[in-house]
C-alpha cells in the first residue's frame, strides 16, 4: 500500500480506490439530499404549514431557519459521538449507522401533520427529527472523506478526497430538482398539501441504495494497522478528548479554515432563495432551476480544484478562495437586483467556483493535520463545531438584516469579515501537499510517546 499511496499504484489499486470513492459519494449524496431538502423546504414550505402564523413573511422564514439551525447544533455532538466510534471501530461501520439515521428522520419529516392539525406538536416533532438529522450528519462527513483520504496516494490526495465533497452539490441538485418538479406540477395548494412530502419519502429509496453500496467496501490498511496498535497498547489514546489535548492548534486552524467557507455556502444556497423570492418577488420554480444548474457546475469544478491543490499546494488555492469569496456579496446582490435570470445564474456559479477553491481541499488538509488514531475525531470536531457559529446562523442573520434594513450591505460586510478570518487561518497553516499519512503517524508516536509508529509502516 505504501507504493500505492506515493504514486497511485496499479490499475487494480485505482479500481479499488474508484470503488471506495463511489461508496463514499453514494452515502454522501443521500445524506446531503436529505439535509438540503430541509434547507430548501424551510424557505418555501415549513414556514407556511408546520409553524404558527407570524407577523410577516420574514419572521416566518427566520423561525424556519431557527429550526434548521438545530441540525447544526447537533452536528458537533454527532462529530463527538461518531468520531469516537469511527476512531475505535472503523469508518465503514460508522457510515452505515449514520446513513440509516438520517434517512429514517427524513422520511418521518414527510409524514408530519401540519400546525393546523396538531398545533405546537408539529414544530416540536420537526425540531426533534432535525436534531437526529444533524446528529447523523455530524458523523457522516468525517467518515466519508477519511475513507477516501486514507486510501488515496499521497501526491493525489486532494483530488481523490475532493470527490465526496463533490457529492454534496449532487445531493443538493437532487433535492432542488425534486422540489422544482413538484412545484411545477402542483402549483399552489397541491404542493403545500402533499407535493412537498414526496421529496422526503423518496429518501427511503436512495438510503437503501447508499447503504448497500457501503457494505461492499473496507477500511484503509493504515486505519486497520492503527486499530491493531490501539488494541494492543492501551497507553495510546484516541478520540475527541485526546485530539483536543494533543492537537488543539490543529483543531483551531481547522475551524478557522471552515469559517468563511461555511458562511459563504449557506448564503449562496439558502439565503439567495430568500433574497430572490421574498425580497425580489421572483418565481420560486425559476429560482430553484437556477440553483440546480449552478450546483451541477459546482460538482464539475470541485475535483478540478482538488487536482490543482495537489499540483500547486493547499495554501495558495485556499487563500485565493477566501479572498475572492469575501468580496462576493458586494457585487452579487446588485447583480441579483437586475432580476435577469442569466445574470443571476452566472453570479451564483461564480460564487460556487470561489467556494470550491476552499471546499475541495478541506478533506486532504484536515486528514494531513491529525494522526490516524484520532483523525476521525479531529476532522469532525474542526468541521462540525464551526457550523454552529457559521452556516447555521448565516441565513438567520442575513434574513434579519434584510427585514430590519431592507439592504444587503450588512450581509456583504459579514461575509467579508469571515473571509479575513479564514485568510488569517490559511496563513497560519503549514503546507501539507504530498504529506505521507504514515509520516504523520510516526511523528505523532515520536512526539507523544504512544504506539510504536509501526501502524503507518505496515500500511
Note poorly predicted spans. 1-7, 452-459
**Structural classification:** mainly alpha
**Proportion of residues in helical segments:** over 70%
| Rg over C-alpha atoms, rounded to the nearest angstrom | 21 Å
Largest sheet: none
Query: What is the tally of helical segments?
Result: 21
Quantity of strands, as a count: 0
Q: Give the distance, in angstroms, between the N- and C-terminal Cα atoms.
A: 6 Å
User: What proportion of the residues form beta strands (DSSP E)?
Assistant: under 5%
Let me know the average pLDDT: 84
Shape: globular
Order of helices and strands: HHHHHHHHHHHHHHHHHHHHH
Topology:
Blueprint (H helix, E strand, L loop, with lengths): L1 H6 L3 H39 L7 H32 L2 H19 L5 H4 L2 H29 L7 H29 L3 H13 L1 H12 L6 H12 L7 H7 L1 H32 L4 H29 L1 H23 L4 H19 L2 H6 L7 H15 L4 H12 L3 H20 L8 H12 L5 H5 L1
Helix pairs in contact: 2-3, 2-4, 2-6, 2-7, 2-8, 2-9, 3-4, 3-6, 3-17, 3-18, 4-6, 4-9, 6-7, 6-17, 7-8, 7-13, 12-13, 12-14, 12-15, 12-17, 12-18, 12-19, 13-14, 13-15, 14-15, 14-19
